[in-house]
Design goal:
Radius of gyration: 23 Å
Number of helices: 10
Structural class: alpha+beta
Largest sheet: 6 strands, antiparallel
CATH class of the largest domain: Alpha Beta
Strand content: 15-25%
Helix content: 40-55%
Number of strands: 8
Shape: elongated
CATH topology of the largest domain: Beta-Lactamase
CATH architecture of the largest domain: 2-Layer Sandwich
Strand order of the largest sheet: 5-4-3-8-7-6
Number of domains: 2
CATH superfamily of the largest domain: GAF domain
Amino acid sequence: MKSAKSSLSTDAVGDAALDEADRYRAPALDKGLDILELLSEQKDGLTRAEIMKALGRNASEIYRMLERLVARQYVVRSAGGDRYSLSLKLFALAHRHPPMNRFIAAALPVMQAFAEQAEQSCHLTVYDRGNLLVIAQVDGPGTWGLSIRLGSHVGLIDTASGQVMLAFQSEAERARMLAEHTKVKGEIALDAHALASTLAAVRDRGHLRKDSAQTFGVTDVTFPILGPAGYAIASLTTPYMRRIDEYVAPSLDQVTTMLDAAAGKLSMHESQ
């Protein structure tokens, strides 16, 4: 049984902790963080009224904070202007911070296992300022293969990696990415209608498999790495090269299945 002295001591510690927390409160920052945390759990975004209801805040508080988050590009509006969702800015900021290193460290063993089994190279890309950045690359075990230089920027519009990244975004985020896009050297332009049709087909299939738009004899196979909300945070690609000698390597269909499994291991499912 607790003594009265012990109970008083425990209560005093608790009160002191509450006083310390109150002393350093930053209500505006708390509101902004509350909105970011709420939107991080929403696949299709929320209206302003839904955000107000979920957070128990009044209209003026939410309006001003949302406007600042939109202005700083942490949150984006839908094309109709009535829904708000997270942008990829927080993920982009993580490129400069150890969490990106942890993501790469977790991805490399999976990529290496794929490369050994499939006998093909693979690379991992993330969105970066209007195009894609290659953040990890693993060569296949053979004496030849195609590799993409680590740290390279590749096109958002005409590559399998870019099209998969675009396909698995909210409409608002996809529009923002396209607005930021600048052509890389040699990038093939696509009109808006053709691109929209391609992205719809990619979403239906769950991946993209197509002849490379950059190199003859290569079939690009790409799967999205999905975050908790179901949007792509990265693309995993293998530039498949078919053997034509007597050596029997894994087929394109087999390699596609292997890459699907690798991407699944790296995706952040809601149950995780």
